[in-house]
Recover the amino acids of this structure.
């Protein structure tokens, strides 16, 4: 069996969003934006994990490590760029 800690965190987050929307605490536009973000993050992370494990299982250890390092570095770089852009606005 795989590790399901990430799944256990997503379910309460989705419940929180649905509850907040049903009480009128957030608008439907924000709910759609957050839902899209959660789905996008899930599929991106799933693909990243799958490809990295597939490379490692196929014996391409250097490529698997490279995939992980480059992907994490690109994510951190994109987050930093987004924060810099937001601060400039």
């Amino acid at each position: 069996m795989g590790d399901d800690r990430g799944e256990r965190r997503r379910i309460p987050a989705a419940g929180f969003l649905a509850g907040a929307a049903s009480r009128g605490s957030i608008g439907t536009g924000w709910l759609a934006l957050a839902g899209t973000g959660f789905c996008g993050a899930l599929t991106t992370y799933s693909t990243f994990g799958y490809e990295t494990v597939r490379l490692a299982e196929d014996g391409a250890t250097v490529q698997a490590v490279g995939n992980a390092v480059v992907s994490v570095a690109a994510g951190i770089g994109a987050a930093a760029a987004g924060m810099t852009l937001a601060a400039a606005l």
In short: The two ends are 46 Å apart (CA to CA). The first helix runs from residue 5 to 22. The CA atoms of residues 58 and 64 lie 9 Å apart. Helices lie at 5-22, 28-57, 61-88.
